[in-house]
Write a structure and sequence with these properties.
single chain, six-stranded mixed sheet, 4 helices, 20% strand
Length: 133
């Protein structure tokens, strides 16, 4: 299992509570400002937490329901290939090809939801959501 704590070099320095933005940028393969703009278009306010599951529904990300309500350490072997956003209580983070892009998220934490994320650089996204990118 691999952890990567060097998140995104171009993140907004004054931003806080932006785990949803970082997770979307890393899992979607887009720059932080583009992910920030997409989530802002969906109602996320600067420096405020955001319920990612609402964005995932609008963006039509596939939810891996069978991975919910299990400990993170038992879910990770199933995330070795692909791009995912994992939700635990009060936090989300990216897992890309088996690498966790977060500090230590706590392997004994219970996973609430896992979303499979397409490569957003190859998928059209509603231009109204990314205005200003």
């Amino acid at each position: 299992m691999q952890f990567c704590t060097s998140l995104t070099a171009d993140r907004f320095l004054d931003e806080k509570k932006d785990c949803t933005v970082r997770a979307l940028a890393l899992a979607g393969g887009v720059k932080y400002p583009a992910a920030h703009a997409v989530l802002a278009g969906l109602g996320r306010l600067n420096k405020k937490s955001f319920r990612f599951w609402e964005a995932a529904q609008v963006l039509k990300f596939s939810e891996r329901i069978e991975l919910s309500r299990r400990r993170l350490q038992t879910v990770l072997p199933e995330l070795k290939k692909g791009r995912y956003i994992v939700s635990v209580a009060g936090h989300v983070f990216a897992v890309v090809d088996g690498t966790i892009y977060d500090g230590d998220p706590g392997l004994k934490r219970i996973v609430r939801r896992v979303y499979e994320v397409p490569d957003l650089t190859k998928r059209p996204v509603d231009v109204n959501l990314v205005a200003g990118c």
